[in-house]
Amino acid sequence: xxxxxxxxxxxxxxxxxxxxxxxxxxxxxxxxxxxxxxxxxxxxxxxxxxxxxxxxxxxxxxxxxxxxxxxxxxxxxxxxxxxxxxxxxxxxxxxxxxxxxxxxxxxxxxxxxxxxxxxxxxxxxxxxxxxxxxxxxxxxxxxxxxxxxxxxxxxxxxxxxxxxxxxxxxxxxxxxxxxxxxxxxxxxxxxxxxxxxxxxxxxxxxxxxxxxxxxxxxxxxxxxxxxxxxxxxxxxxxxxxxxxxxxxxxxxxxxxxxxxxxxxxxxxxxxxxxxxxxxxxxxxxxxxxxxxxxxxxxxxxxxxxxxxxxxxxxxxxxxxxxxxxxxxxxxxxxxx
Length: 336
What we know:
This protein is an alpha/beta fold. The chain has two domains: 4-209, Spore Coat Polysaccharide Biosynthesis Protein SpsA, Chain A, CATH 3.90.550; 219-295, no CATH class. It is built from eleven helices and twelve strands. It has helices at 17-25, 66-76, 95-105, 166-171, 184-194, 219-236, 241-265, 268-278, 280-292, 298-304, 309-313; strands at residues 4-10, 32-39, 56-60, 81-85, 89-91, 109-117, 124-126, 129-131, 137-139, 152-153, 161-165, 198-209. Strands 1, 2, 3, 4, 5, 6, 7, 10, 11 and 12 form a ten-stranded mixed sheet that branches. Residues 325-332 have low confidence and may be disordered.
């Protein structure tokens, strides 16, 4: 059986096709298949068989969003591993080999994140996603010249370049399609953790990631990011942390929206924050289902969060050493 399915979701991404094809063709590990889902790009931006001769290309005539497009491809996959890759992410030749080797070495690990270099010498794009106790999240070391952290456990993996076990992805229901895009990978990582999985950040599985490829600076992006941040906190934060941190979360969301406003981005983040809190009733059933099935204890989640404001403002990585012993991730739901 083929080991992995690489899923690339494209939207008006034709400028990256040749570079990504070249990067994939140089992979030292060839034990994978490639599926490209195009989200209703303009006709001249759609992937063609000549762009990726070995790929299965799925053309959608409607923009499904990043979450739903990945779910659709994952649903059709029959490989043990799914590997998500943005169209503007270009892996080093041993990238897939490094990911698969780690997955085999640590069979209890649900997902593995890649080290992301920016498209400029010496600058990092990300070394794992960090979730602060306030509910704000960030990609660590983004835009910084810094040392790459050693192999360890991160809160969640950035979906621009990550491996996830298909069984773990299916067990938590994949991406939440209501999110469309933005914060969907932090939400997925949170739910994997609640289900008892752990997530590694690899220093050796490396991609170059351009970033901002599909509307990252638009009003819609700021709206979705703010709304989805609230939804993730409401759905995933276990009690008593939920009630303890809810006032801090509301303040942090208001502060982030205000910073966005004064940065000239308009009211989109404020609208997203309001939409998130005003729809808590609709999200609450998801919270009940997730928390009722939860395996991780409140203490497990508390340890995985970042608590220091210096970590947040410095965009510092939070990579924890690998535990010598972990409970089986198929244990019974917790009662705390």
